[in-house]
Amino acid sequence: MSKKQMKGALILMMVAVLTMGVLTACGGSGATEEAPAATPQTVSGTGQGYADDVVVEVTVLDGVIQSIEVVESADTPGLSDGAFDAVIEAVLENQSTDVDAVSGATGSSEGLLEAIEDALSKVE
């Protein structure tokens, strides 16, 4: 083999090695890593209602309030139930406790909001 042929073969090998290196570096493995699925977090909170404590469970997923459930209340059932439903709906819709209390059930509404705020303060 002549010197000229050896030089050409060496250049060809170098180009082949460089091409393989570039293709290996730029090509992905094809597998993508998926982020782990977020887990909802349920926390409880307590607030002072009209008659006694209001206890709620609030479920949050990725910073979004998913659900609010009143688990304990001594407030008047016929009066507080409608207020609780209205306040919970407003909090879920606004994703905030900055909502109005229900007229006629202000103490119950404010106790519920206090309980929700207490629960949200415990979300990690």
What would you say this structure looks like, in words?
There is one protein chain. The protein has 124 residues and is an alpha+beta fold. The protein has a domain of 80 residues: Sufe protein. Chain: A (Alpha-Beta Complex), CATH 3.90.1010. Helices cover 46% and strands 22% of the residues. It has a 3-stranded antiparallel sheet with strand order 1-2-3. A hairpin with a 4-residue loop joins strand 1 and strand 2. Helix 2 crosses helix 3. The longest helix has 24 residues. The radius of gyration is 31 Å and the shape is rod-shaped. The N and C termini lie far apart (73 Å). The mean pLDDT is 87.
Brief characterization of the structure:
This protein has 124 residues and is of the alpha+beta class. Helices cover 46% and strands 22% of the residues.
Task: Assign the CATH class of the domain at 41-120.
Answer: Alpha Beta
Q: Secondary-structure element order, as H and E?
A: HEEEHH
Strand content: 15-25%
The residue-averaged pLDDT reads: 87
Q: What would the CATH topology of the domain at 41-120 be? A: Sufe protein. Chain: A
Strand order of the largest sheet: 1-2-3
Cα shape: rod-shaped
Number of strands: 3
Characteristic key phrases:
alpha+beta, 22% strand
Topology of helices and strands:
Elements: H1 3-26, E1 41-48, E2 53-61, E3 64-73, H2 77-94, H3 106-120
Antiparallel strand pairs: 1-2, 2-3
Helix pairs in contact: 2-3
